[in-house]
Description:
Layout: E1 4-9, E2 26-28, E3 33-35, H1 41-49, H2 54-57, H3 85-91, E4 97-104, E5 108-115, H4 122-129, H5 138-156, E6 163-165, H6 169-175, E7 238-240, E8 246-248, H7 257-260, E9 264-266, E10 274-275, E11 279-281
Parallel strand pairs: 1-4, 7-10
Antiparallel strand pairs: 2-3, 3-11, 4-5, 6-11, 7-8, 8-9
Amino acid sequence: MARYVLLILFTASIFTHCTTSRPWGTTWVKGFFADDTEITVAEWLEFVYYQDLAYYENYNRKKVIAPTNFFPDIALLPDLAFLDNDLKALFYQQNEKQLYFTQLGVSRAIYLPIPKSIEGNTKKIDSILSCPISGITYDQANEFCTWRTKVENIKLGKNSKFHFHLPTLEEYEIMNTKEDSLLTTKTTLCSTFNYASCTTCADRKIQRALENCGTQALPVASFKGNKYGLYDIQGNLCEMTIRDGVSYGGSYLHAARFSIEGQTISYKQAKKWVGFRTVYKK
């Protein structure tokens, strides 16, 4: 019998005012809404295990339904070559799974299958689930957008007409305010986003526990957000644009100038350093 362990996972949506008139974890920019953060491992797991829209049809009645199928469509899984051991167990080792009741943000709760190898280690689980998803393809990201469009319109009612898509370059140029420099002050060496050779510091108003800054993707919202309340528009992972093979914003592998100057970086197929976020208009 599966056990149910309460796990509270705080994503960047806790920094954003929650309303019932728009999807959770999104922020108004200029003419459109955007995800506060890059799409996380937790959100991708929800996509993988909650393809059955019956859960969301009961959403407003507060009925939380656990997934019954621990063998998801393999076409939805990230590329095995880009996953560390914990993520391999999370996505590919379907035996010996425990269901965790997981709170995403302020008002969103789901069950996620978690491997027994990390059972009880809530700090590690929190870190894994709050990292941005990578190792996925452009087509998979678009499948997520299609699924999320259906889900959010079901949850928010018959009059909702949300359409999620990958951002255009023009939308990214708006989201990237370019107001943050590499140094927060002339005397404090604190990097304001995750790029190659970034500098850690003790100022937790700027950074949160960034021992691996510049070497790997960090949990979303590890750095302060910009004036719109968007996190990691610069750095962490390159983010897919609506143009196949074109990413924006730089990553932990790239020099800071790719993020500051808003340069695009080409990619082919899935990459460990490429993730995405979505945008929509009402």
